[in-house]
């Protein structure tokens, strides 16, 4: 045993730890600091913001065929129709006879001042008055212009009533929808 007790002993290194906020003055048992937490939350918020800003561009088509000019044109036409066919009672009540005389033809280019040449129509339009459920008024559609086949288009709608003594009063009770579609 003589060899076991005569070992060379090294001096011990003295270390001192001061725990911040620890009442004992010792160290905390956590491995995460406040800076780690802030950086982690910041990266998470940036990732969520990136997903929300990038996801809509994936879901929408790359090129929309409908621009602001078509939307403005649909709004202008809807306003013109309401103004031109408004009955004496006013307040978006349309005179059915005036509407049928002016806006139920197949070619509304001249009536609505749309672009066209001798043989070519540049702006296509469909004008219709429907019930709020989307059904034609009084079993015959109060519509005009070219038939709309579901192509990309701009549309504008107005809630109106129709002044018509011959029509069934239930058709536009309480109101109807004037819809203008431009493509």
UniProtKB/TrEMBL annotation:
Q: Which Pfam families match?
A: DUF7287
Q: Where is the composition biased (Basic and acidic residues)?
A: 1-14
Q: Where is this region: Disordered?
A: 1-29
* Membrane-spanning residues: 37-59
Please state what the protein is called: Uncharacterized protein
Q: Which domain of life is it from?
A: Archaea
Q: Which InterPro entries match?
A: DUF7287
Q: Which UniProt keywords apply?
A: Membrane, Transmembrane, Transmembrane helix
């Amino acid at each position: 045993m003589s060899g076991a007790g005569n070992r060379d002993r090294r001096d011990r290194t003295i270390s001192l730890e001061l725990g911040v906020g620890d009442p004992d003055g010792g160290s905390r048992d956590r491995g995460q600091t406040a800076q780690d937490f802030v950086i982690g939350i910041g990266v998470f918020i940036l990732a969520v913001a990136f997903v929300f800003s990038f996801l809509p561009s994936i879901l929408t088509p790359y090129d929309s065929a409908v621009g602001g000019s078509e939307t403005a044109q649909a709004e202008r036409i809807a306003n013109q129709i309401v103004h031109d066919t408004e009955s004496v009672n006013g307040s978006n009540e349309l005179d059915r006879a005036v509407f049928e005389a002016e806006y139920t033809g197949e070619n509304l280019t001249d009536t609505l001042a749309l672009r066209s040449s001798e043989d070519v129509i540049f702006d296509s339009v469909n004008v219709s008055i429907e019930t709020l459920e989307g059904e034609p008024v009084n079993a015959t559609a109060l519509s005009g212009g070219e038939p709309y086949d579901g192509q990309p288009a701009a549309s504008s709608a107005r809630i109106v009533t129709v002044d018509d003594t011959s029509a069934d009063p239930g058709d536009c009770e309480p109101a109807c929808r004037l819809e203008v579609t431009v493509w």
